[in-house]
Amino acid sequence: MNSTQTNNNLLSSKQALKISEVNLLIKSTLESQIGSVWVQGEISNFKPHSSGHYYFSLKDESSQIKAVMFKGYNSKLKFRPTEGMSVLARGQISSYPARGEYQIYVELLEPLGAGALQKAFEELKNKLRSEGLFDLAKKRPLPLYPQHIALVTSPTGAAIQDMVHVLKRRSKSVRITLVPALVQGAQAASDLCQALDKIYKLNLFDLIIIGRGGGSTEDLWPFNDEALARKLSQSPIPTISAVGHEVDFTITDFVADLRAPTPSAAAELAVKSDEEIFLMLQKQQRSLILSFRRQLEMRQQLLSSFLSRLTDPKKRLHDLLLKHDDLTERLNYSIKRIFQQKLIALNLLQKGLPDPKLKLVTLFKQIDQLGSSLFLGINQRFTLSNQKLKSQVNLLNNLNPLNTILRGYSVTKSLSDSKIITHTSEIKPSDMILTYLTDGVVTSQVTQVTKQPLLTFNHGSTKESL
After folding, report:
1. Are residues 104 and 141 in the same domain?
2. What is the spatial distance between Cα 41 and Cα 65, in angstroms, rounded to a whole number?
3. Which of 106, 171, 270, 338 has its CA 20 to 30 A from that of 259?
4. Are residues 239 and 143 in contact, defined by beta-carbon separation less than 8 angstroms?
5. Whole-angstrom Cα distance, residue 422 to residue 409?
6. pTM of the predicted model over 0.70
7. Does the residue 320 lie in any domain?
8. What are the tens digits of pLDDT across the range 326-344?
């Protein structure tokens, strides 16, 4: 029983269908009746999921349809979809039974307008430029005289014939090794990467030329592959990209150390011609010979100048011997004269020196005299200091308030603040006072204060009261 008969049986049944059965029926109908279609629309609500799937809607001026593009399909895209982009999509119309929503499961997606390939080319170009793969500072100069060149291209194309012909015509000594690879089709980019890996492992070459002849954009597309671009940027030796004709530009042209407009031009740039090298060597030989002749002439002139200033070595030796004898005599005379002068000075010094024993006796006497004077001075200083100390002690005893009390006087203080009372104005009746005597203290209360001096005497011109 086919699906159509099953659906008819379900529809003719009087039994109520479950929601899940209805959604499965819709899903089966959509897939069998519509299937895979091409749709054109504008992307909206674009949401890349963490799983790698793309969820979005496709809409036109009056309607929209939900869409999903699973990771296995969107990983093959040459561009990244963006909000508002007009695209052409092919996919299966179906539904998601769990939510009862129909949608298109997109398998292919192409931008409209500039075209998918051009869009992908610009996006990859901008991406790699932002990562620095095109930086001029990273470009290496080509070797001046490469001995071994690797050609990465198709073994059957016209490009290999052109490059080999030009290389052999320009240089008889250069070695050429073809590392064959596909240069067109879906597997070409991967094949080119494998060819580069072989070259890197061999480590035999001075230069790499990668390219192919002209063709359509689709034909040249493998040279716009991101993996190939990154592989080429990792090359340990200089590289030349020679893809298509002069008007054709690929990603490898921007990544390589040098871009050649054609494969033949790449071969021209790779090696200098033997004739050019021969002419250059001839020029350098002439320059070297001329420089050598000039140096030789200068050395000969310098040698002649030295020879003209040279004298007979025997005569020179005689002069030196005479000079040696003269200097020897003068040295001996000077030594004798200095010795005699020093001897005379020594005799004079010996006569002028006093007897050291007499000097010591005099010094000992001076020491004894100084010792006696020092001892006498110390005794006198001690006596004066002792007398001064006794005088100061007597003065302190006279000023001691306790001695005053012992002579019959007393000291009176206020009980409230312990201040010494010297005047009647400092107390009043009923105040408590302390009177310090020789053998104790008397506490009393003031009953009367009489303002009258007890004793008056004259001392000089000043009148004082006690």
Report:
1. no
2. 9
3. 171
4. no
5. 13
6. no
7. no
8. 888 888 888 988 988 888 8
